[in-house]
Specification:
heterodimer, A: mainly alpha, 6 helices, 0% strand, B: mainly alpha, 84% helix, globular
Chain lengths: 241, 228
């Protein structure tokens, strides 16, 4: 049985985290406004290019979140610890959200520029596969009741799923370049880079806020689980588990 | 010495699983029949144009293999879970990875036998022409089946003990198998001459890399997964 873990209480207090969240969202709004107002209209896409300032940072954050899942999953497998498990789970949920956002924004961008909602392009396809891998991770977590077992299993699935990310990307890239050249704009004029970097930082703050908040909730959920377990063990004594 | 003992454990577990399957042939028969049924359905859905069918043959055979092998992986733990035999099995002395390796060997035999039925049926139903490169195609098939079985055996150890195991295993497994599916179908299509722009050797190396990486990763991680 996992005992409650008395090490440093790193759960963010709700108040400080709420302020952090307000700040992160204000910074995101400000950097969006800045980037949209300062960047010139793109030659081919015109103002459609502006969607880049949410789409691209969201994609970066999605990959970053899954890297966080990998790190905390490996840490859990290495040394255990409820904190590692809950942080990995929080990052996975936030990462799945950002991946879904990336896909949705990419489709909104692809329709007017490429003329299709979906193209079997390497990045699109591998992002979709990544999304599905982590949907599986979250499904596993919701289908396992014992917290200990859930932590060990999802750490294994998180680590092994993350190992697969570069392999999936490589295989999909080989596969799609044989059929159609990747058509996403790769080069970026310096007029756009500063706005993009600024928004990436703002999005990073939002990511941190989301993971912290999700972690605080997970912590509370776990405490409820522990309390319920203790009540069940101490309560009627004759339970059949 | 210790290594020889470990290999004997692996062999014993594989033998036990295969004996169980051989004595109750219904399991294998129904899984293999499902593979054939999926092929028939795919043929009906994609046909009857012979050229289109020949073009879709490789993908159809791989999908039928994936869908029916999922059932085999859950089965390999189910028998033990139903009789409460998994915990005694884990109580035997020796490293845990031997349990995984034994299950893997048993599943490899099971899935290979199933593929030995599904592939010839696919060749006949989809009108595939046999080419001189068939030994290379067999190798691609073997590497692909190995990759599928490694991850399938690993994920089934968890999925079969969770609620909703029927849906959880394919949900976890199929996205992970995207590289295997792509590499195996592309290499086979190239070898069959359906895709002349394609170089099969790169795909075969990818399959080989996938198999080695995930064999090592699952052997290392299995200990954390199987603990009661």
């Amino acid at each position: 049985m996992s005992s409650s873990d008395p090490r440093r209480p790193t759960t963010p207090t709700p108040r400080s985290n709420a302020w952090f969240g307000v700040l992160a969202i204000l910074i995101l709004i400000a950097s969006q406004v800045y980037a949209i107002r300062t960047s010139p209209a793109e030659r081919d896409m015109g103002d459609l290019q502006k969607i880049m300032y949410v789409h691209v940072p969201a994609a970066w954050m999605a990959f970053l979140a899954f890297f966080v899942v990998f790190v905390y999953s490996v840490r859990y497998l290495w040394s255990g610890g409820e904190r590692n498990d809950l942080l990995a789970a929080s990052a996975a949920e936030v990462g799945a959200m950002f991946t879904g956002l990336t896909l949705a924004l990419g489709m909104l961008w692809g329709r007017p520029t490429w003329g299709v909602w979906w193209a079997w392009d390497a990045r699109l396809t591998s992002t979709l596969v990544l999304f599905l891998i982590f949907v599986g991770y979250l499904a596993l977590r919701s289908f396992v009741d014992d917290p200990d077992q859930r932590a060990r299993w999802s750490a294994a699935v998180g680590a092994i799923g993350a190992i697969n990310v570069p392999i999936v990307y490589m295989s999909v890239r080989w596969w799609s370049t044989l059929h159609q050249p990747p058509s996403s704009p790769d080069t970026l004029d310096s007029a756009y880079t500063f706005g993009l970097r600024l928004n990436a930082i703002a999005m990073l703050l939002v990511l941190i806020y989301f993971i912290r908040t999700r972690y605080a909730i997970a912590r509370l959920e776990r405490e409820t689980e522990h309390a319920a377990q203790a009540a069940a063990l101490g309560g009627d004594g004759g339970g059949t588990r | 010495m210790a290594w020889r003992d470990n290999w004997r454990r692996v062999g014993a577990i594989a033998r036990k699983d295969l004996t169980t399957e051989l004595r109750a042939k219904a399991g294998f028969n129904s899984v293999a029949s499902l593979g054939v049924t999926i092929l028939v359905l795919l043929g009906l859905a994609l046909g009857p144009d012979a050229a289109a069918l020949r073009n879709a043959a490789v993908g159809a055979v791989w999908l039928a293999t994936l869908f029916s092998s999922v059932l085999a992986f859950n089965r390999s733990y189910q028998v033990e879970l139903e009789t409460g035999a998994l915990e005694p099995l884990l109580l035997y002395p020796g490293p845990r990875w031997t349990v995984f390796a034994g299950k893997l060997a048993g599943n490899l035999a099971f899935v290979s036998l199933m593929v030995a039925i599904v592939v010839p049926v696919g060749i006949v139903l989809f009108g595939v022409r046999i080419v001189p490169e068939w030994p290379a195609i067999l190798m691609v098939l073997a590497l692909g089946v190995f990759g599928v079985t490694v991850l399938g055996t690993f994920y089934a150890a968890m999925a079969s003990r969770s609620r909703a195991r029927e849906v959880l295993l394919p949900l976890l497994l199929f996205p992970m198998l995207v590289p295997v599916l792509l590499a195996a179908t592309m290499a086979t299509r190239a070898l069959l001459g359906l895709d002349v722009m394609n170089d099969p050797s790169a795909w075969i190396r990818l399959l080989l890399g996938f198999d080695v990486i995930f064999l090592v990763a699952t052997l290392l991680a299995f200990e954390h997964v199987i603990e009661a």
